[in-house]
Amino acid sequence: MELQSDMEIKEACGVFGIFNPNGEDAASSIYYGLCSLQHRGQESCGIAVCDTKGPKGNMNTHKGMGLVSEVFKDDILEKLHGNLGIGHVRYSTTGAATLSNAQPLVLNYIKGTLALAHNGNLVNTQDLRCELEQTGAIFHTTTDSEVIAYCIARERVRTHNVEEAILHTAKKIRGAYGLVIASPRKLIGVRDPLGLKPLCLGKRDSSYIIASESCALSAIGAEFIRDIRPGEILTITADGITSNCQLCQETHAHCIFEYIYFARLDSTLDGVNIYDARIRAGAALAAAYPADADLVTGVPDSGIPAAKGYSEASGIPFALAFYKNSYVGRTFIKPTQKERESSVRLKLNVLEPVVRDKRIILVDDSIVRGTTIANLIRMLKKAGAKSVHVRVSSPPFLYPCYFGTDIPSNKQLIASSHTANEICAMIGADSLGYMNPRDLQSMVGKLPLCKACFDSHYPMDITGHTADNKQ
């Protein structure tokens, strides 16, 4: 599903924050951290920094549409002075893909300045937004992230400190969130009580870092300390770290799609190594849906580890069947079906000597509408493959997600209106096997999961919230 030519699943957002008490500028570290989180969002990005020893309210911000390397050139980074800062890469799940919705959001209010970056999605945004508008709030974006920022600003007026304001806000908001927040003297990380979205803490020398994934810590030479606990509010200042766990609870529901697709292979989330999880997914597929075949291959890049796991468990050799062109650019936004199919051929080309006269098992991480996998099957058979048996390392998508995974409404999900046999015929496969929902737990051990997009068992009340709200 790495190919997004038929507008399939999109990434979540990524957040990164760092506090350098020694006074070193934070912008370059944030830049490298965001580059390592680029897989989580490619629409827009931004960095906000401040000098903790300078005057309060000196937040310096730059945002833009596009990739981190496109938005932040050397001349831009050189102007972003400050030893505390946060950054964000965005894929829109609420709010349009416009510069006004790019993050971090920076508020100047009666108590000072606040910058916020958010990964996730709230389910009570409309109620909170209406409440704020009734008391005079004027919104400049269409994101739920601005609702969170405004709630914190409102609470801060009547609290002793920003942490107390964040706690009061966290009691109001419902949904999935990993937040990094910068006030003039503090870096704060906040994770939703269910742990739907990931957030971790790292350290490099005397500096502390908060990031969506551990791969961002590795990118700047930082040591992974621990995952931020679900419901925890973690505050970093010149005096060290403090933790508030008032909202921590025993019930958790970690998003399964972090382990199937979102997170980078070299990350570890909540004690689960992503590469190992995907290898186990492939092994479970091999046990549930064996096939007589000559080789196993995966759809680059996200299907490769599960294909390797399938190969190891089945004893069928693994091989790369596609060459991926990494220099095409972002070609997935195509207005017509013909152009979408062309973009698949631009990004991937079949290695004909590998597949000719072979019975192939093709592993992918999901099927949403089925367009991309159908194109790939046609390409393999045109290159001489005798048969193509598709194996999918996730169950059929049957229900929309409301927590920041851009899974479309039911009418756009092929599995909601077609059986596996019908889908198999539609995509031109010789056989089709989906991950059994019971096997999902084998990927992550005892970690409690949210699997609502597969079984409709949402971990919280989503009454009044529809997938149509997601843009």
UniProtKB/TrEMBL annotation:
Co-factor binding details: Binds 1 Mg(2+) ion per subunit.
Keyword set, alphabetical order: 4Fe-4S, Glutamine amidotransferase, Glycosyltransferase, Iron, Iron-sulfur, Magnesium, Metal-binding, Purine biosynthesis, Transferase
Pathway noted in the entry: Purine metabolism; IMP biosynthesis via de novo pathway; N(1)-(5-phospho-D-ribosyl)glycinamide from 5-phospho-alpha-D-ribose 1-diphosphate: step 1/2
A Pfam family of this chain: Pribosyltran
Domain called Glutamine amidotransferase type-2: residue spans: 13-239
Cofactor requirement: Mg(2+); [4Fe-4S] cluster
CDD domains assigned to the protein according to its UniProt record, in alphabetical order: GPATase_N, PRTases_typeI
Active site: C13
Protein's UniProt keywords contain 4Fe-4S: yes
EC number in record: 2.4.2.14
Entry-linked InterPro entries: GATase_2_dom (IPR017932), Ntn_hydrolases_N (IPR029055), PRTase-like (IPR029057), PRTase_dom (IPR000836), PurF (IPR005854), PurF_N (IPR035584)
Reactions the enzyme catalyzes: 5-phospho-beta-D-ribosylamine + L-glutamate + diphosphate = 5-phospho-alpha-D-ribose 1-diphosphate + L-glutamine + H2O
GO molecular function: amidophosphoribosyltransferase activity
Protein role: Catalyzes the formation of phosphoribosylamine from phosphoribosylpyrophosphate (PRPP) and glutamine.
Similarity comment: In the C-terminal section; belongs to the purine/pyrimidine phosphoribosyltransferase family.
NCBIfam families the record matches: purF (TIGR01134)
Protein name: Amidophosphoribosyltransferase
Species the sequence originates in: Blautia celeris
